[in-house]
Structures are given as structure tokens and as C-alpha cells.
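Researcher: Let's try something more involved. This one mixes different molecule types, so please make sure each is placed in the same coordinate frame as the others.
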Amino acid sequence: MPRHVTHVPLRWADLDALGHVNNVVYLRYLQEARVDMLFVHAARNGAEKLAGGVVVSRHEIGYRAPLHFRPAPVRVETWVADVRAASFTLGYEVLDESPSGERTVYAVASSVLVPYNLADGQPRRVAAEERAVLETFYEPDGPAPRRAA
Amino acid sequence: MPRHVTHVPLRWADLDALGHVNNVVYLRYLQEARVDMLFVHAARNGAEKLAGGVVVSRHEIGYRAPLHFRPAPVRVETWVADVRAASFTLGYEVLDESPSGERTVYAVASSVLVPYNLADGQPRRVAAEERAVLETFYEPDGPAPRRAA
Amino acid sequence: MPRHVTHVPLRWADLDALGHVNNVVYLRYLQEARVDMLFVHAARNGAEKLAGGVVVSRHEIGYRAPLHFRPAPVRVETWVADVRAASFTLGYEVLDESPSGERTVYAVASSVLVPYNLADGQPRRVAAEERAVLETFYEPDGPAPRRAA
Amino acid sequence: MPRHVTHVPLRWADLDALGHVNNVVYLRYLQEARVDMLFVHAARNGAEKLAGGVVVSRHEIGYRAPLHFRPAPVRVETWVADVRAASFTLGYEVLDESPSGERTVYAVASSVLVPYNLADGQPRRVAAEERAVLETFYEPDGPAPRRAA
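Model: All components are placed in one shared frame. Result:
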């Protein structure tokens, strides 16, 4: 299945006192990719309720290489690693891809997300039409944040 | 062993458009607790080189309850979950503790950290005196970000 | 009249790639001081509607000295420089004060704020009871962001 | 003279608890526009030393309209309002421009910047070749943050 691709421009303010993108800021990039995928893309395709009605239950992120400031955006690829009854898991890679297809991966991450009802603030099940949209990005065997031993 | 305690004041800017502390900002709180523990406390106790010379290799965080704005700081407890040859793992709880000792936990997290030499930018082993300081916070069986089944 | 005093702890994340508190972050400190003054203090004293119902119309800030990371909070003093029919102006100094009373000023700033009705989103006049609370911090001749020639 | 144009994508994290781009974040957009103009553009055109060697002395910003989240970047136009012996002033407008040329201005701002020597950390004069580059963006009568009476 295709991954969802978001190009996230760096900001100079993303750098910390050590001069590279701070480890916390990578989570901001994942947030932007997630908003882009769920609010913009999925909302156009029949899963409107996911937009705004998703709570983060867990994040995991493994850092692979430092990211330095440059004018070009960084690429965030997002996929759906798992869909359960009342939650789903996104996988992400933050990377650069050269014109010849060589990839430099800066981070690998995953997030467990829980849909909830805006009306009563309670978690709810993943609806059938949401599952269908999520499954267009399904990649159960994608890379995981923990390094292989 | 005692945990290291840091009181982190919230900022109004930590709130997102949903009106509670954004999930990414919790990682900022962990960063402040880590800086407080490693730069301020540990630096006073013989592990000066850890200050500034540590790279984050991995984060994991599980969210337990939403955190709303209030003037009082939130409590971050930090401990050392593991010390290996060339890395160590911190555990954290973000919580409130009432005067009667009742605890409300907002998040449980862990970070794998790698010491490195500022001079050549290469990872290095944990030095004996650093291990001794880290072990004063050793708690191998603390809570983990993944919920029990 | 007394100034309102807020102690704002720095965060390591406030530093930019040049290693000192980024110029934009000072505005965050002013925001925290303003929230502290208007939401916490003023709300307790009869100007509840100012809390949440104020829009920033203008900021001006002059930087006097670089601010480096340290565990101690920085002091923000806030006063009311002007109250008009439908707006008011806050003045601020960001500073350290030594035990002997010596002051190191990092920035001087001002903000023009406009009360508005949450119900219809329209600007409104400053109410009499709000004016009374604001005037407890009145200091029309305080320092201004522009340096004297 | 032409203005320097930077397209700054919004981030969802730029929103505050009131649901629109926080007033402080506009200063981040100005910072990105400034970095783009001085580090990227000017550095290519003979004023390399301005990149990295500029300190903000003063900011002034007037807000004109609230900015809501959307996928499209916002436009920041930057010009040089003044060049003095040892400082220069940038003007900015944060705006949208429709295909038919209609402009919606969200903020008007200015910054006084001081070149300094990286070697000794002292302010220095604007060099002749820097003045020449800055003057390619010279617009002394641009809009100012204070509203006309």
C-alpha cells in the first residue's frame, strides 16, 4: 500500500542549543504529518470524524541520525501499522530521499491513536468507513522504532 | 532508591487548540526534568561530562490522563531504569501528588540516552563515576509506558 | 503603584542555536506574565471578564542584554501604562534583581490589549470595575522599549 | 524595489487554546522570513557575514486580523526600511494574496537589527557590500505597525 507523504519545512527555531533539530521537535513533525493525513486527506475521503476526534495514547520514536537546518523540507512518510476495535497505530519515517532514490532516515516512530466522541469526550470504536480509509495506508510490516539487536 | 523530583511549571502556550497540554509538550517536560537531573544535580556530583554530552536514542511515552492549565507546576519524577555499557535508560512519571499522597499520573515515559565525546562527536562508554551517580537513582522495576494488558 | 511580579522559569528549550534565549521566547515570558496578572490575579479581584477575553493589538519590545540558561527563574514586572475607552497598555521589564537590589534588565516591552465579548467576538469598552483593577497597577511613566536617544 | 517573499507553512502546533495562530508565533514567522532573506538570499549575494552575525535590538508588531489554520502557507513580505551606520530596520507584512491580487493583511511589523562580529561578540558597522545588498530591498515608506490615527 502507498504511504502518505508530507513534506515538512524545518524552522530555524527547531534547532536547539546544540545546533541541530531538537529531539522533541521530531514529534512536532509527526504531528504535522498526522494532521495532514487525518484532517486533510482522510477528511476528504469519508473519515471526517477522525479529524479533531483522535487522542494520542502512546508514542515511540527511535532517532537514527541528526538533522541539520537547511531550506529544503524533510519528508515524513506515514502508514497504518495496525487497526483494532477502538484504536489504530500509525508508523512514520522521517527521511530525505535523493533524486536517485537513496534514503537517509533520521527517525522511525509509531503512535497509538484512539478515536473519541467530541460530544461526550468518551473513546469509541473505529467506524467501518474509517477502517476502510485507514486500510488504504496499511503496512503491517513497516520499520519499527526499536533497532534490531 | 529515591527518584529525582522536578517541578515543571506549565505555560499557557503549552495548550493546543483542544485546550489541554499538547502531547508533544510532555516531551518538553521530560527534557526539563532530564536537564535538571543530569546538568544540575549530576553535574554537582561527579558526572560533569554527562551534562551536554548525551544524545537521545529513543523515547517512549504513554498518556494516562489529560493535563489542563493551572498555575501550579506539575511533578516529574525521574529514575534510572537501566545502565548498560554505552547507554542508560531513564524512566519518568508526570503526575500530581495531593497533600494526602494520592497520585494522579498524566504520563509514563522512558528515554534511552547515549553518552558521547564532545571532542569527536562519537558515542562512548558510560564511565565508572557516571555509573555510580546514575545508580543513586536506580529503579529497575518502575512503571513502563506500555499499559499492562 | 506596585508592579505585578511573575517569576518565569526558563526552559532549556528556550535556547536557540546561538545558545541564548531566543528573541521570540521573550514574548512567551510576557505572555505568561500577562496570563498570571489578568487570569490569576485580576480574576480574583473583580475583572473576571478580562480572563480569556483580551486580544493583543500590538507588541513592542527592546532587547537590552542576552539571557543565558540557568536554573533560577527570571523576573517579569508588569504594570499598566495606559487605560483608554476600549483598550489598555501593559508595560513590562524582564530582569534579574540581586539580593542587594541591583537590577539587570534583559528587555523592556509593551502590549496594547483590547477587551472583547466572547459571545459575539466583537471588541468592547473597558468596564468600570476592570478599569479599577487595572489602575491598581498604574504607572504611566515607566520605561519604554525605545532607547532614549 | 521588490520585497523579499517567503511562504511560511503554518503548523497545527501554532494554534493556541483560542484556536487561532498565537500572537507570539507571528514573531516566529518573521524569524523564518528573516533567516530566509539574510541567510539564504543575502548570503548568496555578497553579505555572507550577516548570516549568523545579527542581533535583534527591537521588534514592533501590529496585529490586523486573526489567522486560522489551513494547509496553505502564509505569505511574509520583507523589506529594508532603513540602513544606518551600525544597524538596519526590516519591515514585514504577513498576508494572503488572492489570485486576483486582493490582499488580506494579518500583521505589520518591524525589527531593528545590529550586525556584530562573531569573533569578539561586539557590534560592528554595516559593511559597504552589506549595505548594497540590503538596499536592493529598500522601501523607506512601507507600512508601519502603528495604525494610522
